[in-house]
Amino acid sequence: MDRTYLIKPELDEDYPVIDYGKGVYLFDISGKRYLDASSGAVTANIGHGVEEINEAMMDQAKKVSFVYRSQFTSVAAEKLAEKIALSTPGDLNWSFFVNSGSEATETAMKIAIQHWQEKGRPLKTKILSRWVSYHGITIGALSMSGHPGRRSRFVPLLADFPVVSPPYCYRCPFNKEPKSCGYECAKELDVAFRRIGPESIAGFIAEPIVGAAGGAITPPKDYYRIIKEICEKHDILFIADEVMTGFGRTGTMLACEHWGIVPDLVSLGKGMGAGYAPIAATLVTERVMEPIKKGSKVIMSGHTLSANPQSSAVALAVLEYLEKNNVIEDVEAKGTYLKNSLKKLKTLFPFIGDIRGKGLLIGIEFVGNPKTKQSFPRELNVTERVVKMAKDVGLLLYPATAGEDGKSGDAIIISPPLTITKREIEELVRLFTSALTKVQEELETKGVK
Ligand code: PMP
Predict the structure, then answer these.
(1) Among 142, 266, 270, 272, which is best to mutate for testing ligand 1, by the most ligand atoms less than 8 A from CB?
(2) Cα dist. 280→38, 98, 251, 310 in Å?
(3) In this structure, are strands 33-36 and 25-28 parallel, antiparallel, or unpaired?
(4) Is 212 in the pocket of ligand 1 (CB under 6 A)?
(5) What is the CA radius of gyration of the chain?
(6) Is 207 in the pocket of ligand 1 (CB under 6 A)?
(7) For 364-417, what is each residue's pLDDT tens digit?
(8) CB within 10 Å: which end of the chain, N or C, has fewer?
(9) CA dist list (Å): 191 to 169, 175, 210, 221
(10) Is the interface score ipTM higher than 0.95?
(11) 273 lines ligand 1 (CB under 6 A)
(12) Three-class DSSP labels, 55-79
């Protein structure tokens, strides 16, 4: 072929062409094998080439692939919504199916606003959020995202929704220690609500564990309890963006379960279809649905392919697979084993600053100086180097940004399929070690130690 007609993320980059995938591995057309330690973009939660999922997809295709949501529902979508209601905590009983995480967070935003409209409070329209966060690429979702790199080109179009600091203990925005900090980062939300005025705020959105924008930033124990209390005090809905953390990634169906809270709305995506089909969802509690059910009885959002039977059948099969194979139950132990193995690398590679995360969502932040936590100069492209070197040795990692401004630091996420075995975890750590060894050599030639 003389030219490509496909718009790729990096236009000048030659991407390997993948031939097939099996379990935690992908194989390109030259026969090179990659251990998928990122599950793509934290998506291929049950690994590649799982027969049951392909069969469920085929079975559905033989029946019907598409019905339009305003005309029909489907057995697959009905069953999926029921199973999600039974698998999630509290009264998160309602599912609105969409096709991507961005659509799911944007739908959550709209349902939150509509909830207040139906209750006769139409001025409650803002959805506040945190800096160092990512909620999606569409304009509404990007407005809620505290990701300077992804916002910058579109700032004039965006609402100023990110207002408070993230619970980023490694670089505490208040220069405190976790044991004695008094949760200032959570309490900052109370001040923000009072300053801006709760009468204009519909909701507050947060990723239980910050993914792409921070490299698996994990809050201390009581953070979400305090956040939820502050939201309730001011009559503001709490939206958990579980697009990355949901569907078992951290060892529970929803990451919020670790902290014993039930959000008012939840967005899901990524692991829901596990990469086998595009599907995402906004989950809504009974309380949030109530005024809409009594009022206009219509959710003013939706897409042509919402609740698509084909995608619904896939997500249902993924949930059944997780249950049948007790996948989620094993995540915590696997995550601990992987994290402990990674921690041992700190002595070999002093530029590993912090290792964090929960279950099989693990973040590693790299720093130029581990004592002062000073980041590497941006022009060294350390994240990109690590990801590229890993890919060269046959290991896939997910690049993240880090640093107090969400752009000056370097981080990666390690998030293999939840089905990874102990032997494969050991191989992952071996490959990671050899990639970091090469990065260290490169940095040394540039005079960085
Ligand atoms: N929210 C979170 C927490 C995410 O990690 C992502 C994707 N990285 C999104 C929303 C957007 O999802 P999508 O790319 O499927 O639109």
Answers:
(1) 270
(2) 19, 5, 19, 13
(3) antiparallel
(4) yes
(5) 22
(6) yes
(7) 999 999 999 999 999 999 999 999 999 999 999 999 999 989 899 999 999 999
(8) N
(9) 20, 18, 22, 21
(10) yes
(11) no
(12) HHHHHHHHHCCCCCCCCCCCHHHHH
Contact assessment for residue 399 and residue 384, using Cβ atoms and an 8 Å cutoff? yes
pTM: 0.98
Interatomic CA distance for residues 249 and 357, integer angstroms? 11
Domains of the chain (ranges; CATH) run 18-49+329-445 (3.90.1150.10), 53-324 (3.40.640.10)
Nearest 5°: the CA angle 206, 212, 214 is 75
Is the C-alpha dihedral spanning 433, 434, 437, 443 positive or negative?
A: negative
**Alpha-carbon distances, residue 136 vs 61, 150, 205, 244, 269 (angstroms):** 30, 9, 12, 11, 11
Give me the sheet containing 265-268, strands edge to edge.
94-98, 280-284, 265-268, 237-241, 201-206, 126-130, 162-164
Phi, psi of 25 (to 5 degrees): -110, 145
What's the gap in Å between 182 CA and the centre of ligand 1?
31
Q: 217 φ, ψ to 5°? A: -70, 120
Q: Does an H or E element contain 340, and which?
A: helix 327-343
Q: Quote the tokens at residue 85.
A: 């209601």
- Beta-carbon neighbour count of residue 162 at 10 Å? 25
Helices 309-324, 327-343: axis angle to 10 degrees equals 70
For 107, the token pair is 């739908």
Sign of CA dihedral 195, 196, 198, 202: negative
Report pLDDT digits (tens) over 99-113: 999 999 999 999 999
Query: How far is residue 141's CA from residue 66's CA, in Å, rounded to a whole number?
Result: 27
Please give the distance of CA 320 from its chain centroid, rounded to a whole number: 21
